[in-house]
Amino acid sequence: MPILAGVALLFVPVSEGLKPNGWYYFALFVAVVIALILEPIPAAAVGLVGVTAATVSILVVPNPDATKWAFKDGMVWLIFVAFMLALSYEKTGSGRRVALNLVKWLGKRTLGLGYAVALADLVLAPFTPSNNARSGGMIFPVIKNIFQ
Q1: Among the four residues 10, 101, 106, 133, which has the most C-beta atoms within 10 Å?
Q2: Each residue's pLDDT tens digit, 29-67
Q3: pLDDT tens digit string along 1-37?
Q4: CA–CA gap between residue 118 and residue 134 (Å, rounded)
Q5: Residues 84 and 138: beta-carbon distance below 8 Å
Q6: Where are the domains of the chain?
Q7: What is the C-alpha separation between 13 and 143, in angstroms, rounded?
Q8: What's the predicted TM-score (pTM) here?
């Protein structure tokens, strides 16, 4: 369905005052948004396919160096990989196992649970330089499972 919507927009005449390259980029954008809504594959994979399609078709930058634009910012990819790890924590249940061990060791009081979260964050900090990636991608799945 998302691919059909994107292809259908490609055959619509380009609006006045808009370059054809911009209209093709809009069609790709609509296809990605529809894919994010329908979720035929995980959202992270949809984003990766969208960025790759824009880069390969040279829609983003009208020159052959378009691949440098999409893959030059390492921080974006660091956060992306951390969220992919979070998805793997959820799918494999390892976030739940870590949470249960933290509760077993430090969960006699609510303050102990706070210390457990701070300890997990402290241990992961040297290996994940992005606060967003560490908090949202690695600590959040563990904390979410503490309350289940």
Answers
A1: 133
A2: 999 999 999 989 988 889 889 888 887 887 665 555 655
A3: 999 998 899 889 888 888 888 888 889 999 999 999 9
A4: 12
A5: no
A6: 2-72, 75-146
A7: 50
A8: 0.49
